[in-house]
Design a protein that fits this description.
Growth Hormone, Chain: A
């Protein structure tokens, strides 16, 4: 407890809380169509491939919007960028409430839901910006635990859709966005760690080798999290014949593990090193995905998903312990770029699962494909980390006393 008090005194807790809340509510809205997928699929009689594509649209849209929002935050400030984004989300939810009535409208709404998915880099950089390097991992983990918004979506959206109709859930979502908007407006303060950079400087991370290694690692950890979180309601509903509400509840059991352990991942990485913890994460993810391909009973499947999401959440926290060490003055831009590619990778999972089911009659090959990709990415990271520990980070991925920007 004393250590946590020391951590809080080192930064600005109200900004950290506002960042968590902002990310949490944005994340809940981002995955709304995934949470309501069984209702939407039934309404429009969608094929497995159509289900996978419909679920992937918000993921890919949110990914594309992340980097531009991160660049914008460098010019107008992260707090202002967050307020602008939440205002746009409110308008998008109003559109959903009044105008979404066909499958084409659902796909268009998926693009608008992507606005909420753009919050990632800004939220984490804003929340951790007041904290020194030795606490960046924990601060990033706390702000990043806002991906627990998945839990809110899969727990609340299905019952609301059952009672009021799935289109009306967008209206409820519009009302909820007022809360994080007001908290951000009143309590958050722009951190002092932003420096003036030219647009050319901000875009440098797009062509740096380290950035692309981080990108593919995040495709596994975060892409896996967001892709599976969106697809699990459909998976449980189709695979085991549970009710739509039960499918959401089972998904909640899995996703809550990933959200909670993200904080642990950041804390452990501060102490143990982000590279060391990511190594453990990849081994676990590969094992769990291969086991999941065996089409086990529902209890074993649920437990395996809980363990897999815990590993994915830890991986997300571990990776973003390293980001501010590698890009100390442009964390929001670098984080947004990494988050963009990672989330784009998340669109792979719903499509892979839908195609696997449609053409082979089973979801198994989707899990195998994900595990195989994880093996390749782990090899890339393992080669790259040998250079990292000679240039900008300590042994195993621990922060060093003074982190110079490596270029």
């Amino acid at each position: 407890m004393a250590g946590f008090k020391t951590f809080l005194k080192a930064g600005h807790p109200p900004t950290l809380f506002a960042s968590f809340l902002y990310f949490d509510f944005c994340f809940a809205i981002w995955v709304l169509n995934g949470a309501m997928a069984p209702f939407i699929s039934e309404a429009f009689h969608l094929s497995p491939a159509q289900k996978g594509f419909m679920i992937s649209v918000p993921i890919m849209s949110g990914a594309i919007m992340r980097f531009p929002l991160g660049v914008l935050s460098q010019y107008i400030g992260r707090k202002n960028a967050a307020l602008v984004e939440m205002g746009m989300i409110l308008l998008a939810m109003i559109y959903g409430y009044f105008f979404v009535s066909t499958y084409s409208n659902v796909l268009a709404m998926g693009v608008l839901l992507g606005i909420a998915g753009a919050s990632f880099g800004v939220a984490l950089s804003l929340g951790s910006g007041w904290f020194p390097p030795k606490y960046k991992g924990l601060a990033m983990g706390i702000a990043g635990a806002g991906n627990s918004g998945t839990v809110l979506a899969v727990l609340l959206a299905p019952p609301l859709a059952m009672k009021y109709g799935w289109q009306n859930v967008y209206g409820f979502a519009a009302i909820t966005m007022l809360f994080p908007f007001l908290v951000m407006l009143i309590f958050a303060k722009e951190p002092p760690d932003r420096e003036d950079h030219t647009l050319k400087d901000l875009l440098k991370c797009l062509v740096e080798k380290d950035g692309w290694v981080f990108n593919v690692v995040y495709i596994i950890t975060f892409g896996g999290f967001i892709g599976l979180a969106n697809f699990l309601p459909t998976f449980f509903y189709d695979q085991f014949g549970v009710t739509k509400v039960q499918a959401g509840q089972l998904t909640m059991l899995a996703t809550i593990m990933g959200s909670a352990v993200r904080v642990v991942g950041g804390y452990v990485s501060d102490k143990w090193g982000g590279i060391n913890s990511l190594t453990l994460v990849f081994v676990l993810i590969i094992i769990f995905m291969l086991l999941q391909s065996l089409s086990l009973p529902i209890v074993a499947t649920t437990i395996l998903f809980m363990l897999a999401f815990a590993a994915l959440g830890m991986g997300n926290g571990s990776l973003f312990q390293l980001v501010p060490l590698r890009w100390p003055t442009t964390t929001a831009v670098a984080g947004s770029m990494i988050g963009e590619i990672g989330a784009l990778g998340g669109g792979f999972i719903p499509n892979a699962m839908g195609l696997s089911k449609q053409y082979t009659g089973t979801f198994a090959w989707g899990f195998v494909a994900f595990a195989g990709f994880a093996v390749i990415v782990f090899g890339i990271m393992w080669v790259a980390q040998r250079r990292w520990t000679r240039t900008w980070v300590g042994k195993g991925g621990k922060a060093i006393s003074e982190v110079a920007h490596y270029s």
